[in-house]
Specification:
- The protein is an alpha+beta fold.
- The protein folds into two domains: about 120 residues, Ribosomal Protein L22, Chain A (Alpha-Beta Complex); about 90 residues, 4'-phosphopantetheinyl transferase domain (Ribosomal Protein L22, Chain A, Alpha-Beta Complex).
- The chain contains six helices and twelve strands.
- It has a five-stranded mixed β-sheet with strand order 4-5-1-11-12, with helices on one face. It has a five-stranded antiparallel β-sheet with strand order 6-10-9-8-7, covered by helices on one side.
- Helix 2 packs antiparallel against helix 3 and helix 4 runs antiparallel to helix 5.
- The radius of gyration is 18 Å and the shape is globular.
């Protein structure tokens, strides 16, 4: 699948714009491409910890190495704007399921939650007011064997929804469920170690918002709420957040607009 070139350098998210205020019950999503200017890569590399720099150095291909540097550098620079601290001073912890979290409080003593995903040269970073969240991103592949995968890994209702869609929309319908499920599992800090058919995603009539159903003995919390992101082109993304009554703000360098909902 051809890679889409960036329209705006992610350095614009990292400049001296000042602190970012996180209002209660808010979720911010930042969208950007990982192909960046030399100046952006150098600024990102300067923020990395020794461990992160060592991980970057282990990539054989320059493109993969540069994308890692930009993704983790932009993450640090963005979170630093929320916390009011230098990006290099941020410390992270890792949960039992491998989910990263901030271990550095802001100057006001609060902690924000975050999650990051990247695919095919694009990244999304989600930040909340402390509530748990997860995010996932895919680029639509019309050749995906949607029905075969769904029959093996999805619940019956999800398979039925894909089968009921027009043939030209089956891949799109499949990826909606896929990113929704992945966002929930990433938010819970479980990942694909948890069976993807161990819970059911229920979309609303407009296929924009969803909730989940879980068995009574499930290790998965049942209060996840999912929103599909209004991404341009053939990109499909979803953010999953614990609880209700939260507002979404999407700030994109991939399209000349910001979205609020």
């Amino acid at each position: 699948m051809p890679r889409v070139l960036p329209t705006v350098d992610p350095l614009l998210f990292c400049g001296p714009q000042g602190d970012v205020h996180m209002a209660p019950k808010s979720v911010h999503v930042w969208s950007f491409f990982l192909e960046a200017s030399t100046a952006c890569r150098e600024q990102c590399a300067a923020t990395l910890s020794r461990a992160e720099a060592a991980r970057a150095a282990r990539f054989v291909e320059a493109r993969n190495r540069n994308e890692f540097i930009v993704a983790h550098g932009v993450l640090r620079l963005l979170l630093a704007r929320y916390l009011g601290l230098p990006a290099r001073k941020l410390a992270f912890s890792t949960g039992a399921g491998g989910k990263p979290a901030l271990a550095t409080p802001s100057h006001a003593g609060s902690i924000v939650s975050f999650n990051m995903t990247h695919s095919h040269g694009r990244a999304l970073i989600a930040v909340s007011d402390g509530r748990e969240l997860g995010i996932d991103l895919e680029q639509l592949n019309p050749a995906v064997k949607a029905l075969a995968i769904a029959r093996r890994y999805f619940r019956n209702s999800e398979l039925t929804a894909i089968q009921s869609a027009a043939s030209s929309l089956q891949a799109l319908t499949f990826f909606r469920y896929w990113v929704a499920k992945e966002a929930v599992l990433k938010g819970q800090g479980i990942g694909l170690k948890f069976p993807i058919d161990g819970f059911e995603v229920e979309f609303d009539a407009h296929c924009k918002n969803a909730q989940i159903r879980t068995p009574e003995d499930s290790r998965l919390a049942n209060d996840w709420r999912i929103r599909l992101l209004p991404l341009e082109g053939d990109w499909i993304g979803a953010v999953a957040v614990r609880g209700e009554s939260w507002k979404l703000r999407l700030q994109s360098l991939c399209a000349p607009r910001a979205f609020h909902a």
